[in-house]
Specification:
The protein is an alpha/beta fold. The protein contains 17 helices and nine strands. It has a nine-stranded mixed beta sheet with strand order 1-9-8-7-6-5-2-3-4, with helices on both faces. Helix 5 (86-94) links the parallel strand 5 (76-79) and strand 6. Helix 2 packs parallel to helix 7 and helix 9 runs antiparallel to helix 14. The protein is globular and about 65 Å long.
Length: 340
């Protein structure tokens, strides 16, 4: 059984006695900085002068400095910038100020797992990774609730790394829901696999394949959109609430029968074998090396693919249909750029 920690297992005073630098103010960064600030923690947000997020953070009542100054000031440094940005930021702003006794924290283990950072041995290295987008971390905190999170300790120089991480988690609000202990390796490898095989890659390809099959067979694109994309949220919400069994209980017997008969024909042994190959490439670093090389080369394949995917006919049909349903609060992704 996994070890899970809750509010009763963490002391807020531990993090209240430390100064915390939050590097980045995106999805996770804004939630961490604001939640910690509201819990009484001394927080500074580290952003370059060119960042457009500085004004937002200041308007929210936070102190903003450049990343190097924030790291020099802080006892605890939480790194919440994209994986591909971290090595350069680490070398330029973090490493010069990562003195003995400080704590270096992450919300994803990619760069620690794949060894891209020159971390000294006399600092604590830990992770608190909310299992939710940052906006939801913030929303639930304000509602008095929380989202589950993962906890890992990579380096315990002080002997108190887990205690500090749990205190940070309590200030963030995630011990309200439960913090599950893991390792940097397990978090990184399962996260990368899940994104590729299920949550992003697997679901996106399944949705497009179903839509294309119906449209190519002569069915209306609008009907295909509703069947293969729009209704997916209804099914996922049922799973989220009660697992696969509750979803099957909630749908019709015909739908449940189709689940049992159709699913194994789509996810075949060949599919499972490919999933195992994906996992092996994550575990041995092949995937990480490819992504790092693509980023360093200026992301030519990534940017071309991103632009092409935006033009898929399910995106064109979907944008038009969502505009007719304002109750969905439809949004449009920003135009593609050369940097994620």
């Amino acid at each position: 059984m996994a070890e899970i920690f809750y509010d009763k297992d963490a002391e807020l005073d531990t993090i209240l006695g430390r100064k915390v630098a939050v590097l980045g103010y995106g999805s996770q960064g804004h939630a961490h900085a604001l939640n910690l600030h509201d819990s009484g923690v001394q927080v500074r947000v580290g952003l370059p002068a060119s960042s457009g997020s500085g004004a937002k953070a200041r308007t929210a009542g936070l102190t903003v400095t450049d990343p190097a100054s924030a790291c020099a000031w802080a006892d605890v440094i939480m790194v919440l910038v994209p994986d591909t940005v971290q090595p350069a930021l680490f070398a330029e702003a973090i490493r010069p100020h990562l003195t003995a006794g400080k704590t270096l924290m992450f919300a994803h283990g990619f760069n620690v797992r794949f060894g891209t950072l020159d971390i000294p041995p006399d600092v604590d290295v830990s992770m608190i990774a909310p299992k939710s987008p940052g906006h939801r971390v913030r929303e639930l905190f304000e509602e008095g609730a929380g989202t589950p999170a993962l906890l890992a300790v990579h380096q315990n120089a002080s002997g108190r790394a887990r205690e500090v991480a749990l205190s940070y988690a309590k200030a963030l609000g995630v011990t309200r829901a439960g913090v599950l202990q893991t390792t940097f390796e397990e978090e990184t490898e399962t996260d990368l696999f899940g994104e590729q095989a299920v949550l992003c890659g697997g679901v996106s390809e399944l949705v497009k394949a179903g839509f294309d099959t119906l449209v190519d067979a002569g069915y209306q694109p609008e009907v295909a959109y509703f069947e293969c994309l729009h209704e997916l949220k209804l099914i996922v919400d049922l799973m989220y609430q009660g697992g696969l069994s509750y979803m099957r209980y909630s749908v019709s017997d015909t739908a449940e029968h189709g689940d049992y008969t159709g699913g194994p024909r789509i996810v075949t042994e060949e599919t499972r074998a490919e999933m195992r190959r994906l996992l092996a490439e994550v575990q041995d670093g092949t995937y990480a090396r490819r992504w790092i090389a693509e980023d360093r080369a200026g992301r030519p394949w990534f940017n071309e693919t991103r632009a092409r995917e935006r033009q898929h006919r399910i995106e064109v049909v979907g944008e038009r249909l969502r505009a007719m349903m304002p109750f969905l609060r439809p949004v449009a992704a920003p135009q593609p750029s050369s940097v994620s």
